[in-house]
Amino acid sequence: MSELTLKTITELREGFRGGDFSAREIAEAFNAAVVAGRQLNAYTVETPELALEAADAADRDRTTNSLKPLSGIPLGIKDLFATVGVDSTSGSNILKGFKPTYESTVSGNLKAAGAGMLGKLNMDEFAMGSSNETSAYGPVMSPWKRNDGGNAALTPGGSSGGSAAAVSAGLAPGVTGTDTGGSIRQPAAFTGISGIKPTYGRCSRWGIVAFASSLDQAGPMARTVRDCAIMLEAMAGFDPKDATSLNLPVPQWEAGLTTDLRGKKVGIPKEYRIDGVPDEINAIWDQGIEWLKDAGAEVVQISLPHTKYALPTYYIIAPAEASSNLARYDGVRYGLRDTPEGGNLDAMYAATRAAGFGAEVKRRIMIGTYVLSAGFYDAYFTKAQKVRTLIKRDFAEAFKQCDLILTPTAPSAAFGLNEKMADPLAMYLNDVFAVPASLAGLPAMSVPGGLDSQGLPLGIHLIGRELDEQGVLNAGLAIEERAGFTHRPKRWW
Amino acid sequence: MADATAPYRIKGETGDWEVVIGLEVHAQVTSNAKLFSGAATAFGAEPNTQVSLVDAAMPGMLPVPNRECIRQAVRTGMALDAVINRWSRFDRKNYFYADLPQGYQISQLYHPLVGPGEVEILLDEKDENSVKQIGIERIHVEQDAGKLMHDQHPTMSYVDLNRSGVALMEIVSRPDMRSPAEAGAYLRKLRAILRYVGSCDGNMEEGSMRADVNVSVRKVGGELGTRTETKNVNSVRFVMAVIEHEARRQVELIEEGGEVAQETRLYDPDKNVTRTLRSKEDAHDYRYFPDPDLLPLELDEAFLEECRSSLPELPDAKRKRFEGLGISAYGASVLTAEVETARWFDGLLSAGAEPKQAANWTVAELFGALNRTGKSIDECPISPEEAAELLKLVADGTISGTIAKQVFEIMLETGDAPSKIVEERGLKQTSDTGAIDAEIDKILAANADKVEQYKAGKEALFGFFVGQTMKAMAGKANPGVVNERLRAKLG
């Protein structure tokens, strides 16, 4: 592995601008790492030529002093983002071979900022999953192994599993993820990297394949908090093509970074201490509290009383929206089409969707269809919307007493492949700490806190007020500095 | 003809039946772009040429509301005196069909843009007291679907998405109509209002306006019966035919001991029958829920004020204004029925024409000529200004009414201005007593016997002398002067 692939975006930017190495050298190093890392199954499509093309443009721009914020930085793009002329399949058979004629706003923003694309990253099918095992391309392997001497294959988490594995293994310095109910934060925690889901509406959803529209948000995943700030600044921004996009200027998050948390109050929600969570999770949480105190913050105990309803609420709202969002994959206009001999239109729908969707996607379409059905709508969907409002209110009340909320990211470290596939409820529990912030549309971030006794990374989770990405990033940076997390997975691939 | 205001009854074996009618009118919003995408909306374009990525429901595409479509629906609501809901929301109506790319239609079930309003109809257009109010329950805004083409390939159906995503207003009436004639009057009135407002071109042949017809029957004054809904009826005449047919079918069914099924039906205009499309049991569960891609629609006062102030004078107000100018109720009604006619006639008035004369001339002469030549008012070769000039030539005695008809014909043919025609062809009416006297003298001399008879008391011959004089003067003599001179000479 080249030294270059060990560097952060910040370091690459500095070295490239200072003339230590060229953008082409960076791109070539990562292209090689992508090839060498194929065992991890992190990428579904490799686009070395696009990385080189952007790199050459960056090298030219350097000679003319017209550098852009991400000039020279090659990135991986989650397969949920439509990328012009490059397969964009959302990890699903039903979109196999689909090459959009358009570029998602977020990936387009990154390109416009000078970034190159290394390839498309594997993910759970339509972002539905917490282990990257529902992908039509097969699971992603975490680069991490337990220190028990065994060789068990671990999940990098999901749904942005390919994204997390790529950053963690040095197959990209930064990547895009999307987060509907923890899909950036949980994989970041599992692989020892940082990832932030901004406030709902910060990043345009245009060109991102919809899972649950009221929850979906794009965000960056990278090795450091500063790298996340750099990427998020390029990704975010008002987009008139997305009616839910926030019409606000993008703050200069990187320039605003500080680890001085004096005067800040950090809330610790008592409802996040739940039975059955390993002591090590609570221990890293307590460690996080100490670090933030050390950075000058005051710690206060808070209550988010409706926390226990968040997961069931999420598993009504998200599938309901998904059942409708995924209706367009019908075999009529693009993607897979299966027309049984002698069958009519309904037979084509049934055959196409039976062949094109995996088990988890079908499960969620059925749940979503059920909760929206006549006679069940009020009992499930309307009730869930009401609870969602209560959960939002919980946060609004809590933020009268504190500026930030600190929790663990996930209730466990990375688990083994196939460990939870047979038990969807156990799988869904992975996102128990992540989902409330999604329902409330709040900015939230996971940063690495340390390793557990098995040598696996554990994440610390920060939730901020609406639009206060800066507060989240600053607290994340304060933890990062104190945690001194420099662990990398030992290379076995 | 039966009294237009008499109740409409179906004579059954068991007595008289009343029919109860409600209409859901789908009116395409006049707009250059679709409801949630920037795609164009031209009618009759080549298949799939008016389609954006959003309309084709490509992965990751999102709807963004088109302000103009919302504005037109709000203006329509205001024109129907309806409640405008400052807060409304879009819902998804989920179902699978090949002409519905998203797998759902974006519509408004729970919180429509426009609430209750009403439309005033005249049961007898010659009687301004024969008014009836038809209630409007709501207007909501929704997307149209595409179209399947079954005639392009022996074994396959093709899909044309040009209409996919086009903005529709669904105008839902209350079940207030009691006869085919009332439904016809309601539709015509609604169409006129939409066209005045400019929110829909009302073109039923091109599908810009279509109606779902809800019909039930009951014994006069009895409980409401079960209704059927006949979908997508695309002319006023067909709507009336559907009601007649459906009411009779239901009465016969009930009287034979059957029951009306709550179902959706289709009208076949060739055979003039309706038939079952799907029964209640097959009804879709549309799983309506709020569209998470769209924020609620919140209208501020400035927007509403702009909508209000941009409303034109509406048919009823215009009719009353015309009546106030001395125009007959019938004339006012005819002149305001179509926005183009009303606009043309208002042009005639502003060009200085005297209202009553102008109304009589427009209804009798102009409409007659347009009918004869098969032209619409928009294709009228005569401008309101030219027509006003013609009427002025009559009013000030420059030409006679008879000559005016000639001049009008020449105007239609040549498009020349009336004064030019009168000048060039020497059609000016003469009041020159010298010339008139000379002709009168000749005529009296040539008809000495008739002069004798007249003087002996046969006064009816006076008209003969007038006619002869006018003929001799080639119609250009001022009839008043001719009369006066004749009386003087005949003593």
Automatic annotation (TrEMBL), chain A:
Keyword Protein biosynthesis: yes
Keywords carried by this UniProt record: ATP-binding, Ligase, Nucleotide-binding, Protein biosynthesis
Domain of life according to the entry: Bacteria
Enzyme Commission numbers on file: 6.3.5.7
Catalyzed reactions per annotation: L-glutamyl-tRNA(Gln) + L-glutamine + ATP + H2O = L-glutaminyl-tRNA(Gln) + L-glutamate + ADP + phosphate + H(+)
Gene3D superfamilies in the cross-refs: Amidase signature (AS) domain (3.90.1300.10)
Protein name per UniProt: Glutamyl-tRNA(Gln) amidotransferase subunit A
Organism encoding this protein: Sphingomonas caseinilyticus
UniProtKB/TrEMBL annotation, chain B:
PANTHER family assigned to the protein according to its UniProt record, in alphabetical order: GLUTAMYL-TRNA GLN AMIDOTRANSFERASE SUBUNIT B MITOCHONDRIAL AND PROKARYOTIC PET112-RELATED (PTHR11659), GLUTAMYL-TRNA(GLN) AMIDOTRANSFERASE SUBUNIT B, MITOCHONDRIAL (PTHR11659:SF0)
Function summary: Allows the formation of correctly charged Asn-tRNA(Asn) or Gln-tRNA(Gln) through the transamidation of misacylated Asp-tRNA(Asn) or Glu-tRNA(Gln) in organisms which lack either or both of asparaginyl-tRNA or glutaminyl-tRNA synthetases. The reaction takes place in the presence of glutamine and ATP through an activated phospho-Asp-tRNA(Asn) or phospho-Glu-tRNA(Gln).
Enzyme class: ligase
Keywords: ATP-binding, Ligase, Nucleotide-binding, Protein biosynthesis
Protein name according to UniProt: Aspartyl/glutamyl-tRNA(Asn/Gln) amidotransferase subunit B
InterPro entries hit by this protein: Asn/Gln-tRNA_amidoTrfase_suB/E (IPR017959), Asn/Gln-tRNA_Trfase_suB/E_cat (IPR006075), Asn/Gln_amidotransferase (IPR018027), Asn/Gln_tRNA_amidoTrase-B-like (IPR003789), GatB (IPR004413), GatB_C_1 (IPR042114), GatB_Yqey_C_2 (IPR023168), Gln-tRNA_amidoTrfase_suB_CS (IPR017958)
Catalytically driven reaction(s): L-glutamyl-tRNA(Gln) + L-glutamine + ATP + H2O = L-glutaminyl-tRNA(Gln) + L-glutamate + ADP + phosphate + H(+); L-aspartyl-tRNA(Asn) + L-glutamine + ATP + H2O = L-asparaginyl-tRNA(Asn) + L-glutamate + ADP + phosphate + 2 H(+)
Record's subunit section: Heterotrimer of A, B and C subunits.
Organism whose genome encodes this protein: Sphingomonas caseinilyticus
